[in-house]
Structure formats: C-alpha cells, structure tokens
Design goal:
Layout (H helix, E strand, L loop, with lengths): L14 H20 L4 H11 L4 H27 L7 H21 L6 H18 L3 H25 L4 H12 L16
Helix pairs in contact: 1-2, 1-6, 2-6, 3-4, 3-5, 3-6, 4-5
C-alpha cells in the first residue's frame, strides 16, 4: 500500500487561491461590522476580480464596474416602467428587450468584457425589484456599491499580499534603470 501522497505529488494551494479566500473573509467581516446586506455580491466580485496580476485585477474590476452600472441602469428603467403586479409575460418581454439593448450598447462602446456581468446584474436586480418592493434607484445603487467593495478588496489584497513576482521585477527594474547618457551612452574617442 502506498504512503500518503507527498508534497511533490500533491501540490499546495497557490497564492491566488489564498488571496481570494482572504479577500472573501474580509468582505464578510466588513459587512458584519457595517451591518450591511449584499455580501454575496461583494464576494462574487472578489471571485471575478482576483486575477493573476494587479493590472489584470484592475482591468477586470473596471469591466465589472461598467457592466454593473449598465445592468443597474437597465434594471432601474425596467423597474420604473412596471409595478410588481404586472403580468409575468410583460415582465419577461421587458427583460428580453433589456438584454438586446444592453448587449448592443456594450458592443457600441467596445466594452465586450462587460456584457456578461451587465446581463447578470440586470436580470438579478430586475427580479429582486419585482419581489422586494424596494425603490429601484436605492436597490440598484446598493448592489453597485457591493460590487465596488468586492472589486476594491480583491485589488487591495492582490496588491498587498504576495504580489506576483513579475510585477515586482518590473517595478524593481524601472527603479534600477540608469538614465541614458548623452551621446547614447557611447564613449567618446580621445583625439591625439
């Protein structure tokens, strides 16, 4: 019978995995401290925004923010044009029209990476508004804030804890670069 797998055969979790867990735990702690609802969306934002580098995290965080804002605006528009008591078929039709318009606008703005999160945000908020009875602007604003909090924590943790080596090397390299000498760094020949 073989022994328990050795470390060589059974790799430990990577740093990105650990940073994702730390950021999610911080989200839960922050929301508990603030007594705020919506921690699930903040944690989902952490999952999406925690990338292999800080730059990638920032880019994904920006795309997520744009998609969330667009999805929230569309959900508010749908929420303003119906009462929770309208027939489901009319609500479904408004969701379909919103999906087409949201994809079209993201494509026009060349924000293709924001499409999926925009659609998810739109549908989630629209359905929540249909059942919650909360004011559309307040609800969409709170969900957008949850997304921003999660993205911010993901970027902060990715930047603070065990930054990827290549980012440190690039930063160190830019600090160690010598300023160019006059004459392109060429030595002058002495005249005899």
């Amino acid at each position: 019978m073989k022994n328990i797998r050795t470390r060589k055969n059974f790799p430990l979790p990577g740093l990105r995995t650990l940073k994702t867990a730390v950021a999610a735990v911080l989200c839960i702690a922050l929301y508990a401290l603030l007594g705020r609802d919506g921690v699930i969306l903040a944690i989902l934002s952490v999952f999406i925004c925690m990338q292999s580098s800080v730059n990638k995290s920032m880019r994904v965080g920006f795309d997520r923010l744009v998609g969330t804002l667009l999805g929230g605006v569309f959900a508010v528009l749908v929420g303003l044009f119906y009462a929770p008591a309208i027939p489901l078929w009319l609500f479904a039709l408004s969701i379909g029209v919103g999906i087409v318009l949201l994809i079209y606008i993201c494509c026009l703005l060349n924000m293709h990476e924001s499409i999926i999160i925009g659609l998810v945000t739109f549908v989630v908020i629209a359905f929540e508004l249909r059942t919650s009875g909360e004011a559309p602007f307040l609800h969409a604003g709170n969900r957008t804030l949850d997304t921003v909090i999660g993205a911010f924590l993901a970027i902060l943790i990715n930047f603070s804890l065990f930054r990827p080596k290549e980012e440190k090397d690039v930063e160190k390299g830019s600090r160690n670069q010598k300023t160019p000498k006059k004459n392109g760094g060429k030595k002058r020949k002495k005249r005899k």
